């Protein structure tokens, strides 16, 4: 049964802190539509790495609910975004997920646009027709140290400039804008997008990730007093590795201090540089670098991981040898696209500088395992027996995500007539 709008408002208003959301937030179509309207159409979203658009005319398309957006590199090398809607009679223009064009041509009546969005050709128009009035509708687009963000709102969140200025010094040393895509894997999880994001924001379940635990300190979210006996050896190794890593970061002038503002601003984010376990170089079974050609002129590969979260749909890991980006796109109340992209140095050669299976092994396995967990969570929440449960101390960032999300819904509902 469809949830009444008034009931949606009541559910949002009464959400208590510190526990999971009620079932309609995860399984209801009306909440899915509200999530697109209130969250995805009003926030800055990570949609691609610049490396996915290496040349003018290269594009990707992004579908968000009823929206479709073209993200394209123009002839001046800038990244632009446009609604994927022809200004003639509204046809979808580009129907592939990615590609390269000289001009953007609608396949219906051949209206032709430049990669700057200007209408270049429209056959058989009436006298006085002004092409300058019929360019593609723009979408806000920003690049930050090689990462591409868009915002569908007419007035985007004003804090993005500040966020970009604070994260750029962390990202810049990795030279992401100069990297190339080693591979990209799309995985559809059979669960609500919020379950995907909640799952990412905690390591309470990390015992289910043996490949990840081999090279990653599985103490994320734990305070020292909460470390269970089974994780105590890993915690002791972390303390030693962290002390060594801080000396390295200081010597290379690499920012590493934690900044965490996940639910106190419209563009919630977290960023921190920390060590990895074993060889400490990369996300590989033994912790050694997966790519011999480092992303930049680092004097050592032992730089651990620079990790970043940005609400509502992305997380990232940047190492000395490669970077991994994750973007989350809702497909329906019970289906979510997780797109993972591995970036390496532009001159790195597969089979010589890196082996693709080694590069992707840890996170491919982890993503597959997470997909199983998210599907189980969605099936359980869909049961009439489901009741919200409490978040533990190690799930603090899950609570921060949910609080950020509910705050966005409340603000949007208050703006409604």
TrEMBL record:
Rieske domain: residues covered: 45-150
Keywords: 2Fe-2S, Dioxygenase, Iron, Iron-sulfur, Metal-binding, Oxidoreductase
Name of this chain's protein: Aromatic ring-hydroxylating dioxygenase subunit alpha
Gene3D superfamilies: Naphthalene 1,2-dioxygenase Alpha Subunit, Chain A, domain 1, Rieske [2Fe-2S] iron-sulphur domain
InterPro entries: Rieske_2Fe-2S, Rieske_2Fe-2S_sf, Ring_hydroxy_dOase_asu_C_dom, Rng_hydr_dOase-A
Cofactor(s), by name: Fe cation
The UniProt record lists the keyword Cytoplasm: no
Keyword rRNA-binding: no
GO MF terms held by the record: dioxygenase activity
Organism: Streptomyces hokutonensis
Entry's EC annotation: 1.14.13.-
């Amino acid at each position: 049964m469809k949830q009444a709008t008034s009931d949606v408002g009541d559910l949002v208003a009464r959400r208590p802190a510190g526990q999971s959301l009620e079932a309609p937030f995860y399984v209801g179509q009306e909440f899915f539509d509200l999530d697109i309207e209130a969250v995805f159409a009003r926030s800055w979203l990570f949609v691609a790495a610049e490396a996915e658009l290496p040349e003018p005319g290269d594009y990707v398309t992004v579908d968000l609910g009823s929206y479709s957006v073209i993200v394209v590199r123009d002839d001046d090398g800038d990244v632009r975004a446009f609604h994927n809607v022809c200004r003639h009679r509204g046809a979808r223009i580009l129907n592939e997920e990615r590609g390269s064009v000289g001009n953007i041509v609608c396949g219906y009546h051949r209206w032709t646009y430049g990669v700057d969005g200007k209408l270049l050709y429209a056959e058989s128009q009436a006298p006085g027709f002004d092409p300058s009035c019929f360019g593609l509708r723009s979408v806000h687009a920003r690049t930050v140290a090689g990462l591409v963000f868009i915002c569908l709102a007419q007035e985007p969140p004003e804090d993005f400039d500040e966020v970009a200025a604070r994260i750029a010094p962390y990202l810049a040393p990795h030279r992401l804008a100069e990297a190339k895509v080693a591979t990209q894997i799309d995985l559809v999880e059979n669960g609500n997008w919020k379950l995907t994001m909640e799952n990412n924001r905690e390591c309470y379940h990390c015992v289910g990730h043996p490949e990840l635990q081999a090279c990653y300190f599985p103490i994320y979210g734990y305070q020292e007093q909460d470390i269970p006996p089974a994780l105590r050896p890993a915690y002791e190794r972390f303390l030693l590795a962290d002390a060594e890593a801080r000396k390295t970061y200081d010597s290379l002038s690499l920012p590493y201090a934690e900044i965490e503002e996940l639910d106190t601003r419209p563009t919630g984010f977290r960023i921190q540089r920390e060590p990895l376990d074993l060889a400490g170089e990369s996300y590989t079974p033994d912790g050694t670098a997966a790519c011999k050609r480092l992303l930049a002129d680092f004097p050592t590969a032992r730089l651990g991981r620079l990790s970043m979260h940005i609400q509502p749909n992305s997380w990232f890991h940047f190492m000395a040898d490669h970077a991994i980006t994750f973007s989350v796109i809702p497909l329906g109340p019970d289906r979510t696209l997780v797109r993972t992209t591995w970036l390496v140095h532009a001159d790195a050669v597969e089979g010589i500088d890196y082996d693709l299976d080694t590069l992707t092994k840890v996170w491919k396995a982890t993503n597959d395992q997470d997909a199983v967990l998210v599907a189980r969570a969605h099936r359980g929440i869909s049961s009439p027996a489901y009741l919200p449960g409490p978040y533990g101390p190690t799930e603090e960032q899950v609570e921060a995500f949910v609080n950020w999300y509910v705050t966005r819904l409340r603000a949007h509902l208050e703006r409604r007539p």
